Amino acid sequence: MKVTIFGTGYxxxxxxxxxxxxxxxxxxxDIDAGKVERLKKGEIPIFEPGLEPIVKRNYASGQLDFTTxxxxxxxxxxxxxxxxxxxxxxxxxxxxxxxLSVARTIGQHLxxxxxxxxxxxxxxxxxxxxxxxxxxxxxKRGASVEFDVVSNPEFLKEGDAVEDCxxxxxxxxxxxxxxxxNVLRKLYAPFNRNHDRTVVMDxxxxxxxxxxxxxxxxxxxxxxxxxxxxxxRVGADVELVRQxxxxxxxxxxxxxxxxxxxxxSCFPKDVQALERTARGVGYDARLLGAVEAxxxxxxxxxxxxxxxxxxxxxxxxxxxLWGLAFKPNTDDMREASSRNLMEALWTAGAKVxxxxxxxxxxxHRIYGDREDLVLxxxxxxxxxxxxxxxxxxxxxxFRSPDFARIRGMLGSPxxxxxxxxxxxxxxEEAGLAYYGIGRGRSLRR
Length: 445
Ligand SMILES: NC(=O)c1ccc[n+]([C@@H]2O[C@H](COP(=O)([O-])OP(=O)(O)OC[C@H]3O[C@@H](n4cnc5c(N)ncnc54)[C@H](O)[C@@H]3O)[C@@H](O)[C@H]2O)c1
Ligand SMILES: O=c1ccn([C@@H]2O[C@H](COP(=O)(O)OP(=O)(O)O[C@H]3O[C@H](CO)[C@@H](O)[C@H](O)[C@H]3O)[C@@H](O)[C@H]2O)c(=O)[nH]1
Description:
Its EC number is 1.1.1.22. The chain has 2 domains: 2-200, Rossmann fold; 222-444, Rossmann fold.
């Protein structure tokens, strides 16, 4: 089928590449001319495992193309996706300016029946606003063209985006038009060969489904961080508690890892946006407020532990940091917990020597050159001249380090394990102090 996608970010580029891989003829449009230029040269602007080969292969075969020109792209697509950003605006609600701008552009060029599909994460009621924006532009032109607007939220995770896109858990189609649903069923048929993953519903329910999914996952994480904070105080080990509760299939092992707080471009903004939506309709979403508040405090956790270990004397100290990205297998630093930690350390007068397998360039782009940040080439280089080590992203490369070597390199040997990667006993036996998240048992010894 002929598909057009507005936005070549994490969602647009991955969706475009995967749809091209399935034999569709896909045109990706972006207003960022530099990005489009790089994509045409085969350079992938983000680190996403498995993405580069499918983009290159499908671009080379002509199944996938990139452009900055909306008019011919809208002409091309039987289906036009909107996959642009919806960042938080000043009060935390989702800013729809990019989505509505694309909607107006579509209205300015629409020339045949088209299914307009919104993939961005948007507040309930946005499909109506997109429909109205397109209709208004058509009216201005005096054009009468049929179209449908569908809500088709995306559930991919960064780091696993290609796999999630090729093998989705579910495909939500929010539409009251049978004609549009049939077009999308046809598009997604190759993704449903094993079993039908499609759930058809109305637009508003589809829009809310996306926020509900992210809010539920964020709630699980904040819940576990709360249990970790209790465990620490009562002398229990949250890692044992996690395994104890995860074995109940009603709870499950997924998304109950305590840590240095959740980050990324979705959970923080989506929990906030849902809370603002609720407030806007006169409902005080207390649970969502608590999820946010627990996460906010959790992001200060490692700083507090480090400060306590160094008796509040952070000025002139050097902290080695392993991990910068908000999670492994990405170079994305949006709302990353590493940023809260580094910024608190700098404010207290400490220096940071950091290593991340992929996020070095992005960190440099955000913070530039500064005296209190050294971006290192490997994990052990970050330890040179450092007092203590903090781990904030659970990259595989950090899973089994040489603790004796670490001890030998640190001025005040201690590990601050922000993702509970290590066995406290093994760390302590190597002569290092161990601080994890909610590991009360190790603190008691
Ligand atoms: N990142 C994720 O893991 C993820 C997963 C599911 C859903 N989402 C949601 O999907 C949406 C997109 O997220 P993202 O992370 O891909 O964003 P992103 O910031 O990585 O990319 C957005 C792209 O849209 C482009 N753009 C902006 N205005 C445009 C216009 N008028 N025409 C064409 N292109 C335009 C930007 O230049 C940018 O390249 C958001 O609503 C987000 O919440 C994101
Ligand atoms: O048990 C856990 C699991 C995750 N995290 C943290 O939660 C954040 C988000 O992780 P993850 O959900 O894996 O990454 P995202 O790429 O942000 O994906 C989420 O956000 C996307 C955008 O909406 C959705 O599409 C995905 O389904 C949803 O998982 C990261 O900081 C993780 O460190 C924890 O602290 N504990």
